[in-house]
Structures are given as C-alpha cells and as structure tokens.
C-alpha cells in the first residue's frame, strides 16, 4: 500500500510541480494574451472531459471497481463516451465567433481516454504516470515554442495536447488489454440519461475550479485573467492530488476507517498549503506564481483556506457515489456552485473584485462541506476530522519557528515544511489503514 501511494504521489506531484513552475515562467516571459488563451483552452479541455464523463463515468467507475465482468462495463461506457464526443464536434461551429471553440474538434480523442478505468481497477501507478505524461509533454513543447515560435505558443500547446492524448490512449488500452475505439451507438447515450444526477455533480466539480475561467473573461481584464488562471490551475492541481489519493483506494472507501485516513492525508496537504500562504507568503508566491504577484498575498491565503475546506471531508464525495446517493449529492452540488457563482458575479462589481475568484471558491467549498456534513455524516465522524485538523495544525509551529530563527527564504521554507511532514508521518503512519481491494490489477 505504501509503495503504491509513494509512486502515485511521485508521478502526480512531479507532473504538477513541473506544470506550476513552467506556467509561472511562461506568465513572466510570454504575452498575456497567449497565456489567457492557454487558460481558456485548458478550461474547455476540462469541460469536454467533464461532458463526455458526466455521471455515466462515475457510475462506470463504481461498476468497474466492484464487478467481475468489468471489461463489458468499460465497453458500454467507452461506446457512450465516444458517441457523445463525436456529437460534441458540432460545438466547434462556434469557432466562427471565437476560434478557441475549435478545441471541441478534440472531443472524440478525449472521449477515447479510459484512464478512469485504471484507477477503478487498482492500477493507480499506471494512471498517475499517464497523468504525468499528459501534463508534462504539452507544457514542455510550449516552452520550446517560447524560444522558436513565440507567436505560436498556444497553437503549439494545443497540437501537443492532441498528440499526447493519442499516445496515452494507446498506452491505457495496452495496460487494460482493451480496445481504444468502439463502434458508435446512439442507444448508448441512454447511460447518460440514467445518471443525470451524477452528471450534474461532476459538472459542479468542474465549475468549482478551472470552470470559473469560462465566466471570468466577462468580468476581468487580461492581467486579472492570467493570475486567475495560475491560481485556479494550482487549485485544480491541489484537488487533483487529493482525488488521486481517493482513486487509488476507490473500492475501499466504503470502509469508515479508510475514508477517515484518506481525509487525514487531505487535511495534512491542505494544512501545508495554508501554512505556506500564511507563514511564508513571499516565498510561496514567488516560488509557485512569480514575484510580480507578491502584493496579492490575500488572494492566495483565501484560496488556500478554500483548499483546506475541501480537504476536510474529501473522501465523502467518492463514498456517496459508491453508496448510490446520487440525487441528494446532486442538490448539494447545485446549491454550492450556485452560491459560488453568485458570489463571483456580485464581488466582480465591488471594491474587492481582485479577490472575487478565491472568495467565491471559499464560499462554494464551505457550502459543499456543510451540506455534506448535515446530510451524511454522524457527529462523531465530524469531530474526529476536526480533531485530526487540530492536532495536525500544531505541527505548523515547526515552520513558524524555522522562519523566526532563520528568516524567510526558499531554504527555510522547504526545511520547515519537510520537518513538519516528517513529524506528521512519524505520529500518524502507524494508524493509517488504506487496504487495497483484492480485485485490483496492481
């Protein structure tokens, strides 16, 4: 189990760190309109993935994880995804008014990805490696374009994304020993109708992150959009890391203790993010976003608190899917996203418009957590998580002391949080129960 978690974190963390540092560098050297367009493209890519997945993919993960005839379930899911992906090509018609909608030409290729099945079958290491490649290759190509074709950075990034998905789709099919493409069937679209509540939930996950970039262009200028893209990308990476932990043990989250310990890991990661923004704001912002954004420390503190709020009960979302509590989960998502969007629109016209994005995320995440707790968690489970939060937060004294005695720098930042991580691991690793389902592939 520990070996699996280490490899998953290594590939996931390496890819995301590469993404953060490259985007920070590109935000400094590339034209702002190029970066804003990459942000919109990234948002549309995630939207397409969300649309071809919707609730059907979550239901498929549940079935693939728990059933013996999982290849038949995968075939049904992939047929539906490819059929819908082909239909979504029609959305590229809107490129007549905005060329960015040409991204929908990728829909069948994105739909052909069966990476979710890797996690459902326990091949989390392979899934994490695929995610690593999909993050690194397009950005690596874009960095080359900065020097060779500075006016074509976005086009290079888009083409590299297409090539990367093509290669990784073939790799996924090889690992699972299944086909890449399936015959289209309009009848397969019934699967989406049967899982509408979960579809709305998944769209809610999208809009509580990079999905905000579909709305922000109507309220903010290019400079504000760039910082929004960098921050939301970092936020999406944080949530992605947390979800990778969930996916690595997806079939075991019906166990209360496994769910508790998945949340324990999430809380520790969330605390590290909050501590970074509060204790080492200049170093944290310079390292991950660029020195030009140091004056926006409040922005990053708020977004880190939103991340911690998400981490407190993060395992519950997957458990609710496994327990088929789709409809109440749908209403939680609708209310939370609605509150987040209303907050964003309202604050965009206020004196604190610069902090509108992180505050809207914080409102949405708090709403999400509170509603889940009220409807699905017993008081004891809630208190246990807050106890973990309290005891773990005491270790923030370590980076605080390191800064007090040695000042704020990249070295003291890394040292302080590395020591904090070691202390947390020493005290909690013996209590971790993260059993891997016996049906898993790896």
Walk me through this protein's architecture:
- The chain is mostly helical and 442 residues long.
- The protein has 19 helices and no strands.
- The chain has helices at residues 2-29, 32-66, 70-88, 107-111, 115-120, 124-148, 153-176, 190-194, 196-207, 222-248, 256-279, 281-288, 297-312, 315-322, 326-347, 356-376, 379-393, 397-406, 410-428.
- The longest helix has 35 residues, at 32-66.
- It is globular.
- It starts with a helix and ends in a 14-residue tail after the last helix.
Summarize the model shown.
The chain is mostly helical and 442 residues long. It has 19 helices and no strands.
Helix/strand-derived category reads mainly alpha
Main sheet overview: none
**SS elements, strand count:** 0
pLDDT averaged residue by residue = 82
Q: Give the % helix.
A: over 70%
Count the DSSP helices: 19
Tell me the radius of gyration. Answer: 21 Å
Looking at the structure, what is the overall shape?
globular
Beta-strand portion reads: under 5%
